[in-house]
Amino acid sequence: MSGAPARQASVGAGLPLATYFSGPKIKWILDHIEGARARAERGELLFGNIDTWVIWNLTDGPDGGVHVTDVSNASRTLLMNLETLDWDADILEIMGIPRRMLPAIRASSEKYGTATGALTGVPVAGDLGDQQAALFGQTCFSPGEAKNTYGTGCFMLLNTGTAPVPSKNGLLTTLAYKIGNEQAVYALEGSIAITGALVQWLRDNLGLIQKSADVEALAQTVDDNGGIYFVPAFSGLYAPYWKDNARGAIVGLTRYVNKGHIARAALEATAYQTREVLDAMNKDSGVSLTALKVDGGMVQDELLMQFQADVLGVPVIRPTVAETTSLGAAYAAGLAVGFWERVDDLRANWGKDKEWVPRMNAARREKLYAGWKKAVTRTFDWVE
Questions:
Q1: Residues 6 or more apart whose Cβ sits within 8 Å of residue 219
Q2: Which of 23, 87, 122, 206 lies in the 20 to 30 Å Cα band around 223?
Q3: Could you read off the pLDDT of 25-73 as tens digits, one per residue?
Q4: DSSP string, 288-334
Q5: Are strands 80-81 and 86-87 parallel, antiparallel or unpaired?
Q6: Confidence of residue 3 (pLDDT cuts 50, 70, 90)
Q7: Contact present, 39 and 276 (Cβ < 8 Å)
Q8: Exposed e or buried b for every residue in 300-311, given b needs 16+ CB within 10 A?
Q9: Phi/psi zone of residue 99: left (φ > 0), alpha (ψ -120 to 50 degrees), beta?
């Protein structure tokens, strides 16, 4: 974790100033690798994230490859202006990055070129960042629709419509997608560092379970968390706190607590952290979430998904296709080549596998959540 502050580097970029993003990395290379800056200024050294590199090679690389990226990937470099959808001249000047080394910024759904080699003749037509592709694959095309991807960490994105929403609550403002010549669509993103990784920690560090899937059965051996909360700030806290001096804690321990309670508290930590990010999104956007679409490895955990719905107070929906990132990229390409004509066709293609509805009453929900918020404060400023 870079210790990224909630303060944004510029309204134009929508991101905190952090070495996590590509821009500072490019600057370091140009400043420290002998001859790199001169070659970049001559147009002999090009930059691209992995999407740019893949498209470049698919379209014949140094023998005529297309050097492009899309708005969603460009928005995560700390170099693109969110409103102009172009490289920000002021930021490039501050970082000393020659514009000519950067790829052209294109829509997320359009034909960039034609593949060569084994794929000769196949159009290359869809380009989306990881989490933006998951949002697109979940067909969150309307403002207020959101998805959460549960993996080692969690990434929640909320569609905020055709205007960027600056965050005052520790979130990232980002491009969601752009379809052809249509207006760009923006999103707020909240990143949670430790979710599935906490289950892995229970398995590898404590030996409480043999495999990650066993955590649900262990958590079901108890009726509740036994009064404990597990805040997994192993390397600090991400959104909405951005505190790199926080450290993990289990609070509320008594002699009554057993390994089942610890397993349950570990699962509940994911749901509570998601609630915190959602609250920040509601404050920034002024839009109240009506349902949360979910994907990723942890969505197979029935106990977690039910508790997530209970803590949020809204339905949680799992799609029939769990690999929504790949699906979103396929949707974008399919729109570009005419396989689908409209985004409404994509909504019709999306299917619901299961839905969890809230069962917990509001008073209990808020009491449990207040306990979580109190527990989180105990992790602040541990590293001096």
A1: 260, 263, 264, 266, 267, 303
A2: 206
A3: 999 999 999 999 999 999 999 999 999 999 999 999 999 999 999 999 9
A4: --S-EEEESGGGG-HHHHHHHHHHHTS-EEEES-S-HHHHHHHHHHH
A5: antiparallel
A6: very low
A7: no
A8: ebebbbbbbbbb
A9: alpha
